[in-house]
Amino acid sequence: MTATEPAGSTGEFNGDIDVNDKPPTKRDLDKVADLPVLDVNGKPHAFKSLFSVDTGETSRVLIIFIRHFFCGNCQEYLRSLSTSITPDALHALPTPTKVIVIGCGQPGLIPMYTKETQCPYPIYADPSKKLYSQLGMIRTLNLGSKSPEYMQYSVPSAVIRAVYQSLKAGRDAFKGGDYWQVGGEFLFENAQVSWCHRMKNTRDHAEIPETRRQLGLDGAKPPLRKTFSSSIRRSSSQLQRRLSDRRKSWSRSRDRTEKSSPEGSMMEKVKEDKHEEEASERSSKEEVTTNGAATATKGS
């Protein structure tokens, strides 16, 4: 198999591959038209129903294929895309346009994914990965040599978030999808693909400015957002302040408890007696010193 092999290839690559971005033909689309995708409730829908123009509602659809549902890179991509290409911006276009997302995990994780990415667009699942295979998307774990513009935090932060989400998912941790599978973007116009981009590595979604241009928007970069790492630093600072306040509260509470208990009262009495004894000793010493000085003065 080569990087330019036609749709339907299923090879596994370890490097950054020069994948063919040639749009699938009508014949290719006919082969996948009836393949099922699952909605958030697990209900199957024919793939062709996502971009069909029979209803006359929408004549252009951008379908985004992501990796597994725990992929921090794809989550960051959707966060950037959602803030840069909003539903209001799409509604203002001369051509009716919508965005649809498809992942390769189980549909039960779609609510978690929607919450994590704040994605306003419908998300479906293709756990069989047949659409990925038939539409020419490859399998690789290579990160690529360049961090894309849509990534607004570091790879370690993405890994930490993915691990945290997996642990939080419990039994669903192994239902996120194939970690090797990468995706791409396909722009359907009148039920045909006018433009597509297939990922060459795990961080190779089409850059936001390019996607905006393909949709007829300007090529503006995605706005800066609050990143996960900055949230961690802010949470850490808040936690330190809370711990400091808690220690002070514990100290005050302990002092009050000691003073109110019989043992505490006795200790306070001992402390007071000791202070009085020390004060008396100091007073006696001062008196002796004063008398000695007076006697010396008389003798002189």
Describe what this molecule looks like in 3D.
45% of the residues lie in helices and 13% in strands. By secondary structure, it is of the alpha/beta class. Strands 6-5-4-8-9 form a five-stranded mixed beta sheet. A two-stranded parallel sheet has the order 1-7. It has a two-stranded antiparallel ribbon with strand order 2-3. The protein is elongated and about 110 Å long. The model is unreliable at 1-10, 228-232 and 294-300 (pLDDT under 50).
**Residue-averaged pLDDT, rounded?**
82
Total of DSSP H or I helical runs spanning 4+ residues:
10
* Rounded Rg: 34 Å
Helix content: 40-55%
Order of helices and strands: EHEEHEHHEHEHEHEEHHH
Q: Beta-strand percentage?
A: 5-15%
Number of strands: 9
Shape: elongated
Biggest sheet architecture: 5 strands, mixed
Point out poorly predicted stretches: 1-10, 228-232, 294-300
